[in-house]
Write a structure and sequence with these properties.
single chain; 408 residues; alpha/beta; ten-stranded mixed sheet; six-stranded antiparallel sheet; 10 helices
Length: 408
């Protein structure tokens, strides 16, 4: 880890409440697009994003889908207890847990937890009744066991019936029916997130068709966005902030596609960025493991400061060699998809290895996402944000977009 302090106060800017977009535009691809390259800023509309991508580019987006993770229980006494599903514990795999028809356990945040003792909570909607059992305290969260009354019905179906879509807290409003559509990307398909990968909200099928007509290819990864994405940096030195861990999944075909397109990789959003950049360090880990030990690997995890520790070592392998190590591992273990965890913290001083351009929204002051943007543009984030603030751009999840070129 780099010991030089990284003062989060240096990544602050004024964000009036009226600049936070409370609702999306009626046509999602009509949002404004800030264009940044080599210190120069201009603007356009998002449906013209293809004008700023070279033919042969590979655009990679996050295909995760937001689940209705907020559950509001009411006890017979009238006390309200809110249970917010964060990530599965048993089964640990998202898809196995969401497809379970016989109960599952999740790590949850619990609002008004002091009112919930040892009794089961019940939540009814139509013919469904969901039961919640508090099993264990996990620091500031809880392990909660869920069971329900209908045989053959999956937990995902139960959440769709009784849960609420968790829109960002800074919108300061209740979830509305239209959010079920507008707070999902048009290409979302793998359920698991508790927050949308919002850079993708601007895409429409029309935009995607236009990109393909221009010879721009697309592919996908999965990172299930956790509630930690909204956590502010509370330490004066951002290096002391504890980054949250998120689950990623990258098909072997996608990794091969990336290898073929190195130098022309466009990440849609910070979640895709974190996933893609994590691949290099996963490849480094695998290169240091004997092939005979591959099947003994239980978990692949990229640590928060692993990139900065690795750069101290000389003779690092190329990006291609690191990615080929992942392909070799998947081939040897008969897997078609890489499953791993990443806690990577991309901050000023980070060396980008895979992503060349980033499509992203405008992020909160003093956030890890703003640190990532600053790292990508060589510290020139104020130029971008000053322009956006002075040219009526809309901010945060339902706000406008930008396309940024990596600082060379």
């Amino acid at each position: 880890m780099v010991n030089k302090p990284l003062y989060i106060a240096d990544y602050n800017y004024p964000l009036p409440d009226e600049r936070i977009a409370k609702y999306p535009l009626a046509e999602r691809d009509h949002s404004k697009l800030l264009v940044y390259r080599d210190g120069q800023v201009s603007e356009d509309l998002f449906y013209n994003v293809g004008d700023y991508l070279a033919p042969g580019s590979l655009l990679i987006y996050n295909n995760t889908r937001v689940i209705q993770a907020r559950l509001e229980f009411h006890k017979p006494t009238g006390a309200r207890v809110e249970v917010f599903c964060l990530e599965p514990l048993s089964p640990r795999d998202y898809q196995l847990s969401l497809s379970s028809t016989a109960g599952c356990t999740w790590k949850c945040m619990v609002g008004n937890a002091k009112k919930w003792h040892d009794e089961a909570l019940e939540l009814k909607a139509g013919r469904f009744t969901l039961y919640a059992y508090k099993e264990q305290v996990l620091g500031n969260t809880f392990a909660v066991r869920f069971e329900w009354n209908e045989e053959g019905v999956s937990f995902a179906e139960i959440l769709d019936a009784v849960g609420e879509l968790p829109i960002p807290p800074y919108l300061n409003r209740k979830t509305e029916e239209r959010d079920k559509t507008t707070y999902q990307t048009v290409y979302s398909r793998i359920k698991g997130s508790v927050a949308a990968p919002t850079a993708g909200l601007h895409f429409t099928n029309r935009v995607l068709d236009n990109l393909h007509e221009r010879g721009i290819e697309t592919d996908e990864v999965t990172l299930h966005v956790g509630a930690g994405t909204f956590l502010p940096v509370k330490t004066a030195d951002a290096n002391e902030h504890t980054m949250h861990t998120e689950i990623i999944a990258v098909p072997k075909t996608t990794i091969r596609h990336i290898i073929a397109k190195l130098g022309k990789i466009v990440a849609v959003g910070t979640t895709s960025m974190r996933t893609l950049e994590s691949l290099y360090f996963i490849g480094l880990q695998l290169r240091n493991i004997k092939k005979s030990e591959y099947r003994n690997i239980e978990n692949i995890h990229v640590g928060q400061f692993e990139p900065y520790e690795e750069t101290k070592n000389g003779n690092l392998p190329t990006v291609k060699d690191a990615l080929l190590a992942i392909v070799e591992y998947l081939d040897a273990t008969d897997q078609e998809t890489l499953h791993a965890e990443t806690q990577i913290m991309i901050k000023p001083g980070y060396t980008f290895r895979i992503v060349d351009r980033l499509i992203t929204n405008f992020h909160q002051p003093q956030s890890t996402l703003l640190l990532l943007v600053s790292a990508f543009v060589g510290g020139d984030w104020k130029t971008i944000y000053d322009y956006a603030l002075s040219h009526d751009f809309r901010f945060l999840s339902y706000g406008d977009s930008s396309i940024l070129s990596r600082h060379s």
